[in-house]
């Protein structure tokens, strides 16, 4: 089987010089970017069912810009006026700067880590007096609340948005790809929610991250490409290595 079409189960990179473009040219592939999952905000009713009072908290933890958007959306919908005294703890500087969309940016009340949640926890431990509200998706890394528990941070976990399967029904009649690449366990789940009788056969399956690789195997699929690994830190490098060998074998 010749690999002609590849589907990457996430949004198309905004960077014009994406490594996927190089792979497409190098191997003569048609690469489609199609998110198998998308984010939806919880409704104000769903939020109220969590019985969380936002104003009981003195600080909010954000792990993404999406978390910021849905926190302030819910505040507006449930008519909560966020006080100027509220503090914000963000996983990166870019997430911290994104807050300017909603509040007047003041260094004295905004803190951020250096790209890892562990960095942020270190900062939070210097503010033990705060009552933190953790803004999350229903699907999130379990390490996040675990690390807060371990650090004995006083926090409440709140779900402001959720990850849901996208509509892939047009792929049901005939799956038009010879390779599919997953970036999350939810993406694998979405494929089978849309196509319960999906049969892999000769279709090449790639997965980024150990939890995604586990999901691929748990759903009974053969894992052909995995990253990161010692030789290939990125998914595109792993695909390149695989295609080199695959091309040699199928000449």
In the sheet with the most strands, the strands line up as 3-8-7-4-5-6
Task: Give the number of domains.
Answer: 2
Fraction of residues in helix: 25-40%
Q: Quick one: biggest sheet?
A: 6 strands, mixed
Please name the CATH topology of the largest domain: Rossmann fold
Q: Determine and state the CATH class of the largest domain.
A: Alpha Beta
Number of helices: 9
Could you give the order of the helices and strands?
EHEEHEHEHEHEHEEHEHEH
Number of strands: 11
CATH architecture of the largest domain: 3-Layer(aba) Sandwich
Mean pLDDT: 93
| Overall spatial form | elongated
CA radius of gyration = 21 Å
Spans where pLDDT lies below 50 across 5 or more residues: none
Provide the structure class: alpha/beta
Strand percentage: 15-25%
Termini Cα gap:
10 Å
What does this protein structure show overall?
The strands form two sheets. The chain has a six-stranded mixed β-sheet with strand order 3-8-7-4-5-6, with helices on both faces. It has a five-stranded parallel β-sheet with strand order 2-1-9-10-11, with helices on both faces. It has helices at 19-27, 44-48, 65-77, 93-98, 117-124, 143-150, 185-194, 210-218, 235-249; strands at 5-8, 30-33, 37-41, 59-62, 87-90, 110-112, 132-137, 155-165, 179-182, 204-208, 225-227. The radius of gyration is 21 Å and the shape is elongated. The protein is of the alpha/beta class and 251 residues long.
């Amino acid at each position: 089987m010749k690999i002609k079409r590849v589907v990457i189960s996430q949004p198309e990179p905004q960077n014009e010089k994406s490594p996927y473009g190089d792979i497409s040219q190098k191997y003569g592939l048609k690469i489609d970017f199609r998110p198998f999952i998308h984010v939806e905000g919880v409704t104000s009713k769903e939020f109220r069912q969590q019985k969380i009072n936002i104003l009981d908290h003195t600080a909010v933890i954000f792990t993404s810009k999406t978390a910021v958007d849905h926190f302030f959306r819910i505040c507006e919908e449930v008519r909560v006026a966020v006080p100027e005294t509220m503090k914000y703890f963000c996983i990166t500087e870019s997430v911290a700067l994104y807050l300017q969309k909603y509040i007047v940016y003041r260094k004295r009340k905004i803190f951020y880590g250096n790209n890892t949640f562990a960095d942020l926890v270190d900062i939070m431990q210097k503010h033990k007096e705060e009552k933190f509200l953790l803004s999350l998706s229903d699907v999130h890394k379990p390490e996040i609340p675990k690390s807060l528990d371990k650090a004995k941070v006083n926090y409440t976990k709140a779900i402001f948005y959720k990850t849901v399967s996208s509509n892939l029904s047009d792929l049901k009649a005939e799956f038009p790809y010879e390779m599919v690449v997953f970036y999350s366990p939810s993406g694998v789940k979405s494929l089978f929610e849309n196509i319960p009788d999906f049969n892999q056969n000769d279709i090449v399956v790639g997965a980024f991250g150990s939890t995604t690789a586990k999901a691929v195997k748990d759903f009974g699929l053969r894992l052909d490409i995995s990253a990161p690994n010692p030789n290939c830190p990125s998914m595109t490098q792993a695909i390149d290595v695989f295609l080199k060998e695959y091309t040699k074998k199928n000449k």
